[in-house]
Amino acid sequence: MPRRRTKAGAGPYPMALPRDVKFVTFDCYGTLIDWESGVYDAFQKEADRDGFTIDRDLLIPRVIEIQREIQRGSYELYADVLRRAAIKVASELSWELESVRSNFLPNSVPSWTPFRETNAQLERFTKKYEIGILSNIDDKLLGATRRHLRTDFDLVVTAQQVRSYKPDPAHFKECARRIEGRKRNWVHIASGYPTDVEPCLKQRVPVIWVNRSGEKLESGQKKPTAEVKTFREAGKLLGAA
Fold this sequence. Notes:
There is one protein chain. The protein is built from 10 helices and 6 strands; from the N terminus they run E-H-H-H-H-H-E-H-E-H-H-E-H-E-E-H. By secondary structure, it is an alpha/beta fold. The longest helix has 16 residues, at about 55-70. It is globular and about 55 Å long.
């Protein structure tokens, strides 16, 4: 999931896209799936039971930060991360949510929908490349999400499989292990700068940043291999339009 940036400034582009791309991976939530709308809708639906109104602009940044705090601890399933995050965020928003009601958030994941461009663009990718998902989620919840996606994937790496959450490099190391000799022909596409772009740059994996919200890099942050505004633009960049 993406983390917002506000300050300007960035260094030079660190690497070029491979000349012969063969394998393309994607982060799921924020890149393929509109998780922010899904989370907001779930919070507001549950809060409506108590006559409480949720401010989306306050909610989303806190969900991002609190999830990352939880994920830095010992590994636990993403469903459990969501339950803990729901209780803490509600408390910060002065909404008295009983812990027994925290299931509303993981239970909402199957209803989180793709961006309008997602399915058509994934189909274009599959005509040209092998594709995969590298996601900070558990297998069960990802399975529910995949019902919204019309394409199959050649590779899937979840947090549950590697027992860690990005930006820990385990997802990327596991992907590199599985694709073996195709690592030099691999490109990752993601919307999260700290969760995906930064670890890709550290692992020397070319990465396209889908920067839908126009985030600005802070001083000292490295630029991705390429930056686009939409998932479709990422496809065009790779000749899968």
